[in-house]
Amino acid sequence: MSVKPSTAALAALVIAAPVTFASVADAAGCGRASWYALTSKTASGERMNPAHMTAAHKSLRFGTKLKVTNANNGKSVIVRINDRGPFVRGRVLDLSKAAASEIGMISSGHAKVCYEIINS
């Protein structure tokens, strides 16, 4: 069986082309994170509790768990996405006060972090 050059070229292009889906693209990343300690309702409908290990992300599914690591000190925390945000340019996550405290970023207000999905 022979393959036409145009078919082979198309197959090579399809194999070489990166596939990008929003959930795959957001599965891991690095950027700035801030923290917040409100008690209002979150975008998921639950009440924000600053003492819980939660976070806001612009597009990850509610309930997604992330491992978030402070790039400055190597401390990590596991958070659950329950809100939308942050809405400040250049920021990738808003952490609850408890989560921010766990990774040592309360006093600075924000920090460079890297995150990865541990389940979805």
From TrEMBL:
It holds the Pfam family DPBB_1. Residues 1-27 form the signal peptide. Its EC number is 4.2.2.-. Residues 30-115 form the RlpA-like protein double-psi beta-barrel domain. One of its GO terms (molecular function) is lytic endotransglycosylase activity. InterPro entries: RlpA, RlpA-like_DPBB, RlpA-like_sf, RplA. Keywords: Cell wall biogenesis/degradation, Lipoprotein, Lyase, Signal. GO terms for biological process: cell wall organization; peptidoglycan metabolic process. The keyword Cell wall biogenesis/degradation applies. Belongs to the RlpA family. Lytic transglycosylase with a strong preference for naked glycan strands that lack stem peptides. This is Endolytic peptidoglycan transglycosylase RlpA. It comes from Mycoplana dimorpha.
